[in-house]
């Protein structure tokens, strides 16, 4: 009799599948409170600005899950089967866990498509998955972070070197400022001693050192529009500061993200690039990991070694 496979719940933020789904998606993000017409128009406009409203994150997530499955099949044949669980879109995290149980799976590993741990991000995914798993009888282990996995550093390093080259330089590239960035979170995580900021700095240091780049900073992006303060400085403010200091070449390295999606294709490629243009700064961005074979191996290795 065949041994039951181990489930792998691949979790990510989620995105709407079409323009018609944007309101439902935004309402879920807002914990059931529908957005105002102004808020909805703003988000819809951002999606429309990135190649006509096409939703790359959903396609990328599908491909990443398929890529992880292929890597697991190669490294540990006939052992794992992957499922999706999204935070703010269908199939929700709870749906993924329940589907595993319906398929007869009683043991699973959860992993988030985000290398850095925060109680507000990865921690919230794990909490939702664990609560559902306990209720349906699935025993789950979780990968909490993989921010210094050697193959992650290798993949990001190659992208930094390539990006510096696009700016007409080569390491140590003293004429290029590399701006590592990630999604901002509310400032209160500092009081909580949340590891998120330090993990991001650790990844930045490791990649900068491996790439031989000396002129770099860490900055934040994509802060939420709420009344409480969020971590800063924002990348638009950082661009102004370094532009006024004489910087002429900037390479954006959004290491907190692993896919081409709204925060990359709009916040960086449109908004930050426009700001750099006003300042007379040449602006490039590293390619995202998406289904890079090294990233797929990072995920697979992390799943196989999950305790």
TrEMBL record:
<feature type="binding site">
    <location>
        <begin position="46"/>
        <end position="47"/>
    </location>
    <ligand>
        <name>Fe-coproporphyrin III</name>
    </ligand>
</feature>
<comment type="similarity">
    <text>Belongs to the ferrochelatase family.</text>
</comment>
<feature type="binding site">
    <location>
        <position position="125"/>
    </location>
    <ligand>
        <name>Fe-coproporphyrin III</name>
    </ligand>
</feature>
<dbReference type="GO" id="GO:0005737">
    <property type="term" value="C:cytoplasm"/>
</dbReference>
<feature type="binding site" description="axial binding residue">
    <location>
        <position position="13"/>
    </location>
    <ligand>
        <name>Fe-coproporphyrin III</name>
    </ligand>
</feature>
<keyword id="KW-0350">Heme biosynthesis</keyword>
<dbReference type="GO" id="GO:0006783">
    <property type="term" value="P:heme biosynthetic process"/>
</dbReference>
<dbReference type="GO" id="GO:0046872">
    <property type="term" value="F:metal ion binding"/>
</dbReference>
<feature type="binding site">
    <location>
        <position position="30"/>
    </location>
    <ligand>
        <name>Fe-coproporphyrin III</name>
    </ligand>
</feature>
<keyword id="KW-0479">Metal-binding</keyword>
<dbReference type="InterPro" id="IPR033644">
    <property type="entry name" value="Ferrochelatase_C"/>
</dbReference>
<dbReference type="GO" id="GO:0004325">
    <property type="term" value="F:ferrochelatase activity"/>
</dbReference>
<dbReference type="InterPro" id="IPR033659">
    <property type="entry name" value="Ferrochelatase_N"/>
</dbReference>
<keyword id="KW-0963">Cytoplasm</keyword>
<dbReference type="InterPro" id="IPR001015">
    <property type="entry name" value="Ferrochelatase"/>
</dbReference>
<keyword id="KW-0408">Iron</keyword>
<protein>
    <recommendedName>
        <fullName>Coproporphyrin III ferrochelatase</fullName>
        <ecNumber>4.99.1.9</ecNumber>
    </recommendedName>
</protein>
<comment type="function">
    <text>Involved in coproporphyrin-dependent heme b biosynthesis. Catalyzes the insertion of ferrous iron into coproporphyrin III to form Fe-coproporphyrin III.</text>
</comment>
<keyword id="KW-0456">Lyase</keyword>
<feature type="binding site">
    <location>
        <position position="263"/>
    </location>
    <ligand>
        <name>Fe(2+)</name>
    </ligand>
</feature>
<feature type="binding site">
    <location>
        <position position="183"/>
    </location>
    <ligand>
        <name>Fe(2+)</name>
    </ligand>
</feature>
<keyword id="KW-0627">Porphyrin biosynthesis</keyword>
<comment type="pathway">
    <text>Porphyrin-containing compound metabolism; protoheme biosynthesis.</text>
</comment>
<dbReference type="Pfam" id="PF00762">
    <property type="entry name" value="Ferrochelatase"/>
</dbReference>
């Amino acid at each position: 009799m065949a041994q039951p496979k181990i489930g792998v719940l691949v979790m990510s933020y989620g995105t709407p599948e079409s323009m018609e789904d944007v309101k439902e998606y935004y309402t879920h993000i807002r914990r059931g409170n529908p957005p105002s017409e102004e808020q909805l128009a703003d988000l819809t406009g951002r999606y429309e600005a990135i190649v006509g409203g096409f939703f790359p994150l959903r396609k990328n997530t599908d491909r990443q899950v398929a890529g992880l499955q292929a890597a697991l099949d190669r490294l540990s044949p006939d052992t794992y089967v992957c499922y999706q669980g999204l935070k703010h879109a269908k199939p929700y995290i709870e749906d993924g866990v329940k589907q595993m149980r319906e398929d007869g799976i009683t043991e699973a590993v959860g992993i988030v498509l985000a290398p850095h741990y925060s109680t507000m991000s990865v921690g919230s995914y794990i909490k939702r998955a664990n609560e559902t798993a306990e209720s349906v009888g699935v025993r789950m282990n979780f990968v909490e972070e993989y921010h210094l996995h050697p193959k992650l550093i290798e993949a990001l390093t190659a992208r930094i070197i390539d990006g510096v080259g696009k700016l007409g330089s080569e390491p140590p590239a003293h004429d290029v400022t590399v701006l590592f960035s990630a999604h901002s979170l509310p400032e209160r995580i500092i009081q909580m001693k949340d590891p998120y900021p330090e993990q991001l700095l650790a990844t930045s240091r490791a990649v900068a050192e491996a790439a031989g780049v000396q002129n770099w900073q860490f900055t934040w992006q994509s802060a939420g529009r709420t009344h409480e303060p969020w971590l800063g400085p924002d990348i638009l403010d950082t661009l102004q500061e370094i532009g006024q200091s004489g910087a002429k070449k900037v390479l954006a390295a959004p290491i907190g993200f692993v896919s081409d999606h709204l925060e990359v294709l709009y916040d960086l490629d449109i908004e930050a690039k426009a700001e750099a243009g006003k300042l007379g700064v040449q602006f490039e961005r590293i390619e995202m990991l998406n289904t890079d074979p090294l990233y797929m191996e990072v995920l697979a290795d992390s799943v196989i070694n999950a305790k």
